[in-house]
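We modelled the chain as a single entity of 192 amino acids. Its sequence is:
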Amino acid sequence: MIGEKLNSDVEVVAIGGTALVLRDLKPSTIDVDIATLSNDDFEKVIEAAYASGYRELWKASWVRVTNEVPIDIFPRRVGEYLIGGSMVKRSRELFFKLSRLTLNVLHPQDILLLKSLMGRETKDFEDMKTIIKCASINWRDVIAEVKWQLDNGGSTRIVLELGYWLEHFKQREKLGVPEWTINELWLLLQKL
């Protein structure tokens, strides 16, 4: 419905639980989470949501609108995590065309990075565990994305948080996280 109200083509990325559901890694989610690729597209999507009958529930650095299902709309950044670079290219591997709105779906390894920064222990812990167990992860791309985040103004916390979680999953959960990946993150942390 939002795509029909847009005046021009807009590309967004499904993130978080929404992306996990669309990639068949999770059965359901309580809301829809999307990120735009520019502030201009953010404004366009918000206007189209209002024109589609959605009403604003929350507005800060992002907006929550609702009709029947809440939609959280983020402009290029989700908290301290930037949406851009190779992550967008990977998200274009799975997409849905909804009139003038193209909904790309964040790749599982990028969801892992995003969730490592969110800090909602139980929900994100289980999602990260599922991604490591069930999704195909290119660990070199994970390290490259961390470096991209650091080079483009993303939070330095990503190194510490992702390193903590990967070490936890390797040591305590006995999941297949390569040791070199954790070591590379700790080396990055030392350089900060």
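As a brief sanity check on the tokenised model: The chain has two domains: 2-107, 109-191. The mean pLDDT is 93.
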